[in-house]
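Internal ticket #5521
Category: modeling
Description: The requester needs a full-assembly model to guide mutagenesis choices. All entity lines are attached below as received. Residue total reported by intake: 496.
Assigned to: D.W.
Attached entities:
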Amino acid sequence: MVPEQLKYTPEHEWVVLVGESVVRIGITDYAQNQLGDVVFVQLPEVGERVTAGQTLGEVESTKSVSDIFAPLAGEVTARNDELDGSPELINTDAYGAGWMVELRLDDASALDELLDGAGYRELVDQG
Amino acid sequence: MSSADAVTRRTPLHDVHEKLGAKFTDFAGWQMPLRYEGDLAEHNAVRGSAGLFDLTHMGEIVLSGPQAGAALDYALVGHASAIAVGKARYTMICAENGGILDDLIVYRTGEQEYLVVANAGNATVVAEALITRGAGFDTEVRDESTGYALLAVQGPDSAGILAALTPTDLSTVRYYASYPTTVAGVHVLLARTGYTGEDGFELFVAPESAQAVWTALHETGRVVPCGLSCRDSLRLEAGMPLYGNELTAELTPYDAGLGRVVKLDKPGDFVGRAALEVAAKSTPSRSLVGLVAPGRRAPRHGYRVVDPESGAELGVVTSGAPSPTLGHAVAMAYVDTERAEPGSALAVDIRGTMSPVEVVALPFYRRSA
């Protein structure tokens, strides 16, 4: 499942614009399926600054752990506190209730450099 | 390895797994179910009721003949000829230098017949070693890995579920025993063994009968199909070693804290005896321990165990995961023996963060009954 209206990174994150220069970030359905049942999510605090490629958090299943990388530079404006008690939301609703953080981007035009749905689907299909 | 070597084998239950929506993984040359619905639900089913596994990737080697027991006494560190007919033992096969080649279960299935079950990744090595080591004995050694499918029913409800499908009184099949019988009308070798820390059974069946047995068990509605992902978290909670993680050719059974499997008092020579007699008298510099972490952030295979004050390296994690049953992270690790006492406060470098851990006695989880 790769919704068309989202942007993607090669690290299996999705990104969507939710306000002026503010994006919401999560991991893709493909990523959650690779991980298995998520039992722990570590997220940054609101106000933290991140640079593109920096570790933003991590998602842990019984089988493995996966770093979440900041796809773009900016400041954390929101974190999904629901994931602290219900990490399984990442499995059940990766693109919705399983969102992870929101970032105010330093440069909103950088969003254009991410993959679109077709580009990401191609990457996943290559396995 | 050429790409031609990478062809993966499928078990006779492959179609069944596909219909159940399994996600597959390549494991030692086999395409095996990693999970079906979800690894947590599968893990919890085995702890709380029962799970059904396809373990056909495991290797089976059969020894038969008047000196089958003597051949195994020579080839393995255990005392196979002392096993009563119908009983089984956990044992190991070692190299001449005492290094562990594999851990095994040996079932004595007859006065002159044994079934040796090896890990999938070592099945060929074990079969070849048994053939070589058995050459001087009056025994026939056959690699029967393709001759068996292996199913497992694991969990507290296992006996109740199987009782309805077999004429055998399961109270007569004790832990680490096996019994030839029928399940759902199919001939099986029914063994009360497993790798989950729960009561349970393993069923050796002809490949062509595997689907009938699986389906009969599944149709009881009382078993949850389980993949290799939860098999790993279950065995970890139960403190059971995994070859390639806790056991390797660089370690002796004594290094792994499993010196009890080496029967130095059995008569006659065996492969590795000289090296193991030396190993038995020395204290290994590192010991296998359990580690618990307060949170769910888990020490994983390969992470460094360090001194929480100085940061000096004290060991390495061999397996680790957030424990579904206990709700916090657990790990097994080799650490410097002088720091290996339960209660010892150590740290693990979890991707750059020094996270506190405490040494505990294994297993992490022990079933109540």
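Resolution: model delivered.
Comment from assignee: Chain B touches chain A at residues 23, 34-35, 38-41, 43, 229-230, 232-233, 295-298, 300, 321-322, 324, 351 (CB under 8 Å).
Ticket closed.
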